[in-house]
Amino acid sequence: xxxxxxxxxxxxxxxxxxxxxxxxxxxxxxxxxxxxxxxxxxxxxxxxxxxxxxxxxxxxxxxxxxxxxxxxxxxxxxxxxxxxxxxxxxxxxxxxxxxxxxxxxxxxxxxxxxxxxxxxxxxxxxxxxxxxxxxxxxxxxxxxxxxxxxxxxxxxxxxxxxxxxxxxxxxxxxxxxxxxxxxxxxxxxxxxxxxxxxxxxxxxxxxxxxxxxxxxxxxxxxxxxxxxxxxxxxxxxxxxxxxxxxxxxxxxxxxxxxxxxxxxxxxxxxxxxxxxxxxxxxxxxxxxxxxxxxxxxxxxxxxxxxxxxxxxxxxxxxxxxxxxxxxxxxxxxxxxxxxxxxxxxxxxxxxxxxxxxxxxxxxxxxxxxxxxxxxxxxxxxxxxxxxxxxxxxxxxxxxxxxxxxxxxx
Length: 409
Fold this sequence. Notes:
This protein is α+β, with helices and mostly antiparallel strands. The chain has three domains: 68-82 and 328-400, conserved putative lor/sdh protein from methanococcus maripaludis s2 fold (Beta Barrel); 83-93 and 238-326, Efflux pump adaptor protein, beta barrel domain (Elongation Factor Tu (Ef-tu), domain 3); 100-235, CATH 2.40.50.100. It is built from six helices and 22 strands. Strands 1, 16, 17, 18, 21 and 22 form a six-stranded mixed β-sheet that branches. It has a six-stranded antiparallel beta barrel with strand order 2-11-14-13-12-15. Strands 3-10-8-5 form a four-stranded antiparallel β-sheet, with no helix packed on it. β13 (278-292) and β14 form a beta hairpin. The longest helix has 36 residues, at 129-164.
């Protein structure tokens, strides 16, 4: 600090209370303006949400008094078939693989692949010339031996005369008798050779042993075939009639045996894989004599005429054995049947268009229908659609099954 410098105390400016007072006065006005603006904005929306503007409410409370639309069907009285179902396959009654019984060259093939043939129809010809030569040789040998036999018989007649005259010994006569017998045996051998040659000629002309459909040709003309060949020439299967073998659970065996013992012809129906289309109708022919322990089933065999050739060997089918028919049963659609942990029940529409729950005892089910042993009577209306919205006493608007829904305007 210099001598000429005078130190002055710091000057403090006084606070301005007027400005602070103005700041606090502005805040309430801003709050009031915000409230007014919010009210202006929200008022139209509150007005729109008022009961007068909103109209009737939608929801459970509003629908409580409305009838529930349902579809119903009338329980009817009728016959309910009882089937035993099983998986099966089609089997030909006879399957024959044609094979040659002689060696030789195939000269002609008389059939066409896939052709239907009858028993005895010519199919294949094997070169017959070697067997014709054998036949001629055997016939020539027979003629030679027949001449020797005739000469031996003449000598025997002379020896017999000489022996009576005691001109020759008994041994000479016996030797000639043995010669005649030997020549007779040779004649039989020659005849057998001729018959064998004729048989070979027959084998050279192969004919159909059964009536059926022939498959694809396995050997072409010109090939040399042998009786020892493992491969056949063609395969013939009988298609009319034809069999279906299917499995049925062993628990049903007593019921089936009872029908068979009474002489009842049980119908068998063959269906496709989806059990939608019926392929053929036949009858039960027999059942197997052994139960398969691994599956607990028994083989059944049905016979089908198969006139339209709907069944084919090794074809997979679903077999249905008609074991019984329940006459006068109460029948309803299976869609009406509901189940709970404690019971099986249906919703029945009463005359006042309300529904009641009825416990039922279900019988046999066939397709989309089921027989009811108790709980429903013929003529009752049972609900088959719209069930999920129902409870005991619900009011319903009923449309019968098969009717077209009414158009609403």
